Amino acid sequence: MPSSPPTLSEARQAIQEHMASMSFLEHLEELRRRIIWSLAYVAIGFFICWGYADRIYGYMQTPIMEALARHNLSQKLVYLNPTEPFNMYLKVGFIGGLFLASPFVLYQVWAFIAPGLYRHERRYVVPFMFFTVFLFLAGGYFGYKIVYPAALDFLIGYGRQFQPMITIGEYTDLFLTIMIGLGVIFEMPILVFFLSLMGVISAGWMWRNFRYSILIIFIIAAIVTPTTDILNMCIFAAPMVLLYAVSILIAWLVHPAHRKRKTKAEA
Question: Cβ distance 119 to 178 under 8 Å?
Answer without folding.
Answer: no
